[in-house]
Amino acid sequence: MTTVEEHEKIIKEFLDDINEKIRANLLIERQKIIGFAASEAAVNLFALLLRKKALVEPGFNANHRFFASQRIAEKRFMKLDIPKKGELINLLIDQESYRNKLCYGKDKKANLVNFAIENLFKIKNLIDSVLEEKNDRTG
Description:
71% of the residues lie in helices and 0% in strands. It is mainly alpha-helical. The chain has one domain (4-138). Helix 1 packs antiparallel against helix 2, helix 2 packs antiparallel against helix 4 (85-103) and helix 4 (85-103) runs antiparallel to helix 5 (110-138). The longest helix has 29 residues, at 110-138. It is globular, with a radius of gyration of 15 Å.
């Protein structure tokens, strides 16, 4: 079981790793690592949202494969009242697609790596805004 604090630590580690690759200008050379890290960061961000909104049990384990397709994601999460669910699920499906493209096969062009990173930060910003809305209403 991953705690909220562990999710936060994992997210920070993956984001720090991606930012190090950006600063070192290693997007092409480390694209497989970036693809993996961005996907795992996105899934942990989603799990953090679900945990903080008490939408899942503490033993819930998020998996990137939950976002392999629209059908799989909808089936898995259709019963949950997730804020901004449609937009978030679509971004997570895109992130899984970037993971598959970057982590497998020959190296891709830098623009695909950049798209994966940009998508991750869209997910992060969306989740951060949803979590802040809760704090604004309760604070």
